[in-house]
Amino acid sequence: MESTRQNKISRLIQKELAEIFQKESRELFHGKMISVTTVRVTSDLSLARAYLSIFPSEKMEELMKEIKQLTPKIRFELGKKTGKQLRVIPSLEFYIDDSLDYIDNIDRLLK
Q: What is the pTM of this model?
């Protein structure tokens, strides 16, 4: 069970990451839409796992490799935005959130 502090930090990181991806998507990601669906922070606040939804989903793996290479730059930008609120900026890990694809697949199967 997550503490109140973990919830607050995860919401803050989710909001700031969404803004970073929105600003950088034109230049770095060739106009692909990247949404931060969930952020989960470990109990020691040292690691944040961000789940991303990418549209369109073609070349998703290639884009995830690019995002993982840019993780230090993204963490630096996050640190500039949240430096006054967080003492230590957590390390970032990015994962694909495929829940929308799963829901779409279930809808297709039911029809």
A: 0.84
